[in-house]
Amino acid sequence: xxxxxxxxxxxxxxxxxxxxxxxxxxxxxxxxxxxxxxxxxxxxxxxxxxxxxxxxxxxxxxxxxxxxxxxxxxxxxxxxxxxxxxxxxxxxxxxxxxxxxxxxxxxxxxxxxxxxxxxxxxxxxxxxxxxxxxxxxxxxxxxxxxxxxxxxxxxxxxxxxxxxxxxxxxxxxxxxxxxxxxxxxxxxxxxxxxxxxxxxxxxxxxxxxxx
Length: 211
Fold this sequence. Notes:
The chain is an alpha/beta fold. It has helices spanning 27-38, 66-76, 119-125, 143-153, 195-209; strands spanning 2-7, 12-13, 19-20, 42-47, 59-62, 82-85, 92-94, 113-115, 132-139, 158-163, 175-182, 187-194. It contains 5 helices and 12 strands. The strands form 3 sheets. The chain has an 8-stranded mixed beta sheet with strand order 5-4-1-6-9-10-11-12, sandwiched between helices. The protein has a two-stranded antiparallel ribbon with strand order 2-3.
Protein backbone atom coordinates (compact mmCIF):
# COMPACT_ATOMS: atom_id res chain seq x y z
CA UNK A 1 0.00 0.00 0.00
CA UNK A 2 0.96 3.64 -0.39
CA UNK A 3 1.06 4.94 3.17
CA UNK A 4 1.38 8.46 4.58
CA UNK A 5 2.17 8.93 8.27
CA UNK A 6 2.63 12.12 10.26
CA UNK A 7 4.78 12.32 13.38
CA UNK A 8 6.11 14.65 16.04
CA UNK A 9 5.02 18.09 17.22
CA UNK A 10 4.62 21.34 15.33
CA UNK A 11 6.17 24.67 16.27
CA UNK A 12 4.21 27.91 15.96
CA UNK A 13 6.46 30.97 15.86
CA UNK A 14 5.92 33.86 18.26
CA UNK A 15 9.02 35.88 17.41
CA UNK A 16 12.55 35.38 16.08
CA UNK A 17 13.55 33.07 18.95
CA UNK A 18 10.35 31.79 20.60
CA UNK A 19 7.66 29.36 19.57
CA UNK A 20 4.71 27.39 20.96
CA UNK A 21 4.96 23.60 20.84
CA UNK A 22 4.06 20.44 22.78
CA UNK A 23 5.78 17.42 24.34
CA UNK A 24 5.50 15.00 21.42
CA UNK A 25 8.82 13.34 20.52
CA UNK A 26 7.67 11.61 17.33
CA UNK A 27 8.57 8.13 18.61
CA UNK A 28 5.13 6.61 17.90
CA UNK A 29 4.90 8.05 14.39
CA UNK A 30 8.43 6.96 13.51
CA UNK A 31 7.70 3.46 14.85
CA UNK A 32 4.62 3.32 12.62
CA UNK A 33 6.62 4.44 9.59
CA UNK A 34 9.38 1.89 10.15
CA UNK A 35 6.87 -0.92 10.79
CA UNK A 36 4.98 -0.02 7.60
CA UNK A 37 8.23 0.01 5.62
CA UNK A 38 9.25 -3.38 7.00
CA UNK A 39 5.82 -4.78 6.11
CA UNK A 40 6.51 -3.92 2.48
CA UNK A 41 4.50 -0.71 2.13
CA UNK A 42 5.69 2.44 0.34
CA UNK A 43 5.91 5.03 3.11
CA UNK A 44 5.91 8.82 3.17
CA UNK A 45 6.62 10.31 6.60
CA UNK A 46 5.75 13.96 7.26
CA UNK A 47 7.66 14.88 10.39
CA UNK A 48 7.65 17.86 12.68
CA UNK A 49 10.82 18.84 14.59
CA UNK A 50 12.27 15.76 16.33
CA UNK A 51 15.68 14.47 17.42
CA UNK A 52 15.21 10.90 16.15
CA UNK A 53 17.45 9.14 13.62
CA UNK A 54 16.28 9.40 10.02
CA UNK A 55 14.69 6.07 8.97
CA UNK A 56 16.12 4.55 5.78
CA UNK A 57 13.91 3.51 2.90
CA UNK A 58 11.21 6.08 3.66
CA UNK A 59 10.36 9.36 1.91
CA UNK A 60 10.89 11.87 4.71
CA UNK A 61 9.43 15.37 4.58
CA UNK A 62 10.33 17.79 7.36
CA UNK A 63 7.94 20.57 8.35
CA UNK A 64 7.78 22.97 11.26
CA UNK A 65 4.35 24.58 11.59
CA UNK A 66 0.81 23.23 11.45
CA UNK A 67 0.29 25.13 8.19
CA UNK A 68 3.36 23.48 6.63
CA UNK A 69 2.17 20.05 7.77
CA UNK A 70 -1.29 20.68 6.34
CA UNK A 71 0.18 21.70 2.98
CA UNK A 72 2.50 18.67 2.80
CA UNK A 73 -0.26 16.22 3.71
CA UNK A 74 -2.94 17.67 1.44
CA UNK A 75 -0.57 17.69 -1.56
CA UNK A 76 -0.14 13.91 -1.24
CA UNK A 77 -3.36 12.66 0.36
CA UNK A 78 -5.31 11.75 -2.77
CA UNK A 79 -2.61 9.27 -3.89
CA UNK A 80 -2.49 7.44 -0.55
CA UNK A 81 -4.28 4.21 0.34
CA UNK A 82 -3.61 4.55 4.07
CA UNK A 83 -3.12 7.75 6.06
CA UNK A 84 -2.20 7.67 9.76
CA UNK A 85 -2.22 11.06 11.45
CA UNK A 86 -0.04 10.48 14.49
CA UNK A 87 1.48 13.97 14.79
CA UNK A 88 0.54 16.26 17.67
CA UNK A 89 -0.48 19.24 15.55
CA UNK A 90 -1.00 22.59 17.27
CA UNK A 91 -4.63 23.65 17.56
CA UNK A 92 -3.67 27.31 17.92
CA UNK A 93 -0.89 29.65 16.77
CA UNK A 94 0.02 33.25 17.65
CA UNK A 95 -2.13 35.65 15.65
CA UNK A 96 0.83 38.00 15.24
CA UNK A 97 4.40 36.86 14.56
CA UNK A 98 7.07 39.39 15.54
CA UNK A 99 10.04 39.56 13.17
CA UNK A 100 12.58 40.39 15.86
CA UNK A 101 12.93 39.24 19.45
CA UNK A 102 10.19 40.53 21.75
CA UNK A 103 11.77 42.56 24.54
CA UNK A 104 10.72 42.15 28.14
CA UNK A 105 8.40 44.93 29.30
CA UNK A 106 6.97 45.85 32.71
CA UNK A 107 3.78 44.01 33.62
CA UNK A 108 2.02 41.13 31.90
CA UNK A 109 1.96 40.24 28.21
CA UNK A 110 -1.29 39.29 26.48
CA UNK A 111 -0.90 36.73 23.69
CA UNK A 112 -3.75 36.33 21.19
CA UNK A 113 -4.03 32.95 19.45
CA UNK A 114 -5.94 31.87 16.36
CA UNK A 115 -7.06 28.43 15.22
CA UNK A 116 -4.94 26.34 12.90
CA UNK A 117 -6.47 24.13 10.22
CA UNK A 118 -7.90 20.84 11.47
CA UNK A 119 -5.98 18.61 9.05
CA UNK A 120 -7.76 15.43 10.10
CA UNK A 121 -11.20 16.95 9.51
CA UNK A 122 -10.06 18.19 6.10
CA UNK A 123 -8.87 14.70 5.17
CA UNK A 124 -12.09 13.12 6.43
CA UNK A 125 -14.20 15.48 4.33
CA UNK A 126 -12.21 14.75 1.16
CA UNK A 127 -11.45 11.05 1.68
CA UNK A 128 -11.22 9.14 -1.59
CA UNK A 129 -12.91 5.79 -2.20
CA UNK A 130 -11.09 2.87 -0.62
CA UNK A 131 -8.77 5.07 1.44
CA UNK A 132 -8.23 4.18 5.11
CA UNK A 133 -7.93 7.17 7.44
CA UNK A 134 -6.58 6.69 10.97
CA UNK A 135 -6.32 9.36 13.65
CA UNK A 136 -4.85 9.58 17.13
CA UNK A 137 -6.69 10.98 20.13
CA UNK A 138 -4.15 12.05 22.74
CA UNK A 139 -6.32 12.59 25.82
CA UNK A 140 -5.93 13.14 29.54
CA UNK A 141 -9.62 12.73 30.50
CA UNK A 142 -12.63 10.72 29.24
CA UNK A 143 -10.34 8.86 26.85
CA UNK A 144 -12.76 6.58 25.02
CA UNK A 145 -15.67 9.04 24.97
CA UNK A 146 -13.56 11.81 23.44
CA UNK A 147 -11.95 9.41 20.96
CA UNK A 148 -15.30 8.02 19.81
CA UNK A 149 -16.61 11.55 19.25
CA UNK A 150 -13.58 12.42 17.12
CA UNK A 151 -13.92 9.20 15.15
CA UNK A 152 -17.41 10.12 13.98
CA UNK A 153 -17.03 13.90 13.75
CA UNK A 154 -13.95 13.70 11.51
CA UNK A 155 -15.18 10.79 9.33
CA UNK A 156 -12.31 8.49 10.26
CA UNK A 157 -12.13 4.74 9.75
CA UNK A 158 -10.10 4.17 12.92
CA UNK A 159 -8.85 6.18 15.86
CA UNK A 160 -6.16 5.29 18.40
CA UNK A 161 -7.17 6.47 21.86
CA UNK A 162 -3.95 7.32 23.69
CA UNK A 163 -3.85 8.27 27.41
CA UNK A 164 -1.02 10.81 27.54
CA UNK A 165 -1.53 11.53 31.23
CA UNK A 166 0.34 8.33 32.13
CA UNK A 167 4.09 8.78 32.56
CA UNK A 168 4.82 5.17 31.59
CA UNK A 169 3.18 5.42 28.14
CA UNK A 170 2.91 9.17 27.56
CA UNK A 171 5.06 11.59 25.61
CA UNK A 172 8.71 10.58 25.43
CA UNK A 173 8.20 7.02 26.63
CA UNK A 174 9.50 4.07 24.63
CA UNK A 175 6.28 2.18 25.38
CA UNK A 176 2.65 2.83 24.58
CA UNK A 177 -0.84 1.44 25.06
CA UNK A 178 -3.79 2.40 22.88
CA UNK A 179 -7.39 1.44 22.33
CA UNK A 180 -8.13 1.19 18.62
CA UNK A 181 -11.72 2.13 17.80
CA UNK A 182 -13.37 1.51 14.42
CA UNK A 183 -16.44 3.01 12.75
CA UNK A 184 -18.03 -0.44 12.81
CA UNK A 185 -17.88 -0.47 16.65
CA UNK A 186 -14.88 -2.80 16.72
CA UNK A 187 -12.52 -2.16 19.62
CA UNK A 188 -9.01 -3.49 20.23
CA UNK A 189 -6.82 -2.95 23.27
CA UNK A 190 -3.15 -2.87 22.26
CA UNK A 191 -0.27 -2.85 24.76
CA UNK A 192 1.29 -1.79 26.96
CA UNK A 193 4.27 -2.78 24.85
CA UNK A 194 7.10 -1.16 22.94
CA UNK A 195 5.97 1.50 20.49
CA UNK A 196 7.26 -0.66 17.65
CA UNK A 197 5.11 -3.61 18.78
CA UNK A 198 2.09 -1.34 19.18
CA UNK A 199 2.73 0.09 15.71
CA UNK A 200 2.86 -3.38 14.16
CA UNK A 201 -0.43 -4.35 15.81
CA UNK A 202 -2.16 -1.16 14.63
CA UNK A 203 -0.96 -1.67 11.07
CA UNK A 204 -2.03 -5.30 10.99
CA UNK A 205 -5.57 -4.43 12.09
CA UNK A 206 -6.16 -1.38 9.90
CA UNK A 207 -4.63 -2.88 6.74
CA UNK A 208 -6.63 -6.10 7.15
CA UNK A 209 -9.79 -3.95 7.36
CA UNK A 210 -9.09 -2.51 3.91
CA UNK A 211 -8.77 -5.85 2.11
